[in-house]
Write a structure and sequence with these properties.
The structure is a homodimer of 237-residue chains. The first copy, chain A, has 237 residues and is α+β, with helices and mostly antiparallel strands. In chain A, 29% of the residues lie in helices and 33% in strands. The first copy, chain A, contains 8 helices and 9 strands. In chain A, the strands form 2 sheets. The first copy, chain A, has a 6-stranded antiparallel beta sheet with strand order 3-4-5-8-7-6. In chain A, strands 1-2 form a two-stranded antiparallel sheet. The longest helix of chain A is centred in the first third of the chain and has 14 residues. Strand 9 of chain A pairs antiparallel with strand 6 of chain B, so a sheet runs across the interface. The structure holds a DNA duplex (19 and 19 nucleotides).
DNA sequence: AAGTGGTCTAGACCACCCG
DNA sequence: GGGTGGTCTAGACCACTTT
């Protein structure tokens, strides 16, 4: 089913990115947009709310919807947007090395992070990311095997997310991320080009399906000089 | 004006935190809630959408609204929630030291980060945060003086946010945050107890008012072992 | 006073899930 | 088939900003 407010949202994004209105200028009013798109005002408001959530506009009562400056890098470094999407969008020169893929039985570590029973089958994927000749990111993915019939080197080489959402029809709905800075463990030093760096940035990522079940746990380890996280937060009063 | 959906949202938060429903259980349906709170379904849906955005529930089509596990630490380490709120909520043993407060004229650095004209007056505040005897955070705040008549040591000692939103009636609407890891500069080593650490986590924070104007730039420097950032992200399809 | 976005209503139809 | 959440409508009143 085509959602009208989503079509309007996409249309407005396209017009904003074409710079039909400049930074600080006002979008047409909700009533004008309602007439232009031949719909109801509530539907326009849904589209504008998405624009607002994504950081395209700021709504000001009594005035209108102001176009705000949008950081081009405004997406998670590792999370709901897949690494492949990120690389494609930024047109980076990156190689992915699949270090290991296999089926494990849940040990206490996985039991804790994935909230599964002992010996529950879990897929493991270990990958490194190479930027201009240096391996600076180490990604360890753990997926509950329940939903995933097979995980191959080819899939991990391309994009696990594309496989999950494309081939398997799974829907990721939300994720919790935790970022800390840690001392490297032996595995980091072994698989990454750490040089003199004696810290790694550790991103723990818990991914949930649309039925609210925990499905995947990922540890992403970044060399500090290649780490960058950008966040856009709206205050709700 | 009292917003009905906000009252319902608060009521439901209170009921969820009282564990009227357990993790994984379903909230009453929208129609039941509509009758219970004597309102329309759209108003109930607004309240539920806020619950969903805040990570209390996950809506599942055809089934209902599932209570999800909510991380107690699910708020920004430094950003839209003020440091004071954070400390109060977590009941931490923290001291704030105001190292410097004063009025500056915008130099090229401030011109870039605050997008102001040369020599525009800007308040500066430099504070360190002491946890169990060690100074582990350094906060440098820059506020465009336009909106702020006076900034005193007392205000900085307590909470700048409380002053802005309470006393001055300013409304913060959104912020952009950028997290990186850097080598400490001399000032860091001077004002913080860095010990052997040769990295600091740098959080750059750009704060906007409700008329979408940039108002404040903050650099928050954390000793790596005391840094932790938690993020909850919802995927929009 | 006119225009803006914010809230609220009552009703409708749809897609999806489950017994 | 009955219940669930998702979308959409047309209209109303409010608070706020600008003219």
């Amino acid at each position: 089913m085509k959602r009208k407010y989503d079509l309007i949202y996409r249309s407005l994004v396209e017009r904003i990115e074409r710079e039909e209105w400049g930074i600080g200028e006002l979008l047409p009013s909700e009533n004008e947009l309602k007439d232009h798109y031949r719909t109801s005002r509530e539907t326009i408001r849904k589209a504008l709310n998405v624009l607002s959530q994504k950081g395209y506009i700021q709504k000001v009562r009594g005035k209108g919807s102001v176009i705000i400056e949008r950081n081009k890098f405004n997406f998670p470094v590792s999370g709901l947007v897949s690494f492949k999407e990120l690389v494609d969008k930024m047109d980076l020169d990156v190689k992915t090395h699949v270090e290991d893929v296999g089926l494990l039985k849940a040990d206490p570590f996985l039991q804790e992070h994935l909230q599964v029973a002992k010996d529950e089958p879990v897929w493991q994927s270990i990958r490194t990311r190479e930027f201009s000749g240096e391996r600076v990111i180490l990604d360890k993915d753990f997926l509950i095997a329940d939903h995933v019939p097979n995980l191959t080197t080819e899939i991990c080489q391309d994009s696990i997310y594309a496989y999950l959402e494309g081939e398997l029809g799974l829907t990721i709905s939300f994720a919790k991320k935790e970022i800390t800075v840690e001392k490297p463990i032996e595995e980091d030093a072994c698989l990454m080009d750490l040089g003199d760096f004696n810290h790694v940035v550790l991103i723990r990522n818990y991914v949930y399906l649309d039925d609210a079940t925990l499905f995947q746990y990922t540890e992403s380890r970044h060399r500090p000089d290649r780490f960058r996280f950008v966040d856009f937060a709206r205050r709700h009063h």
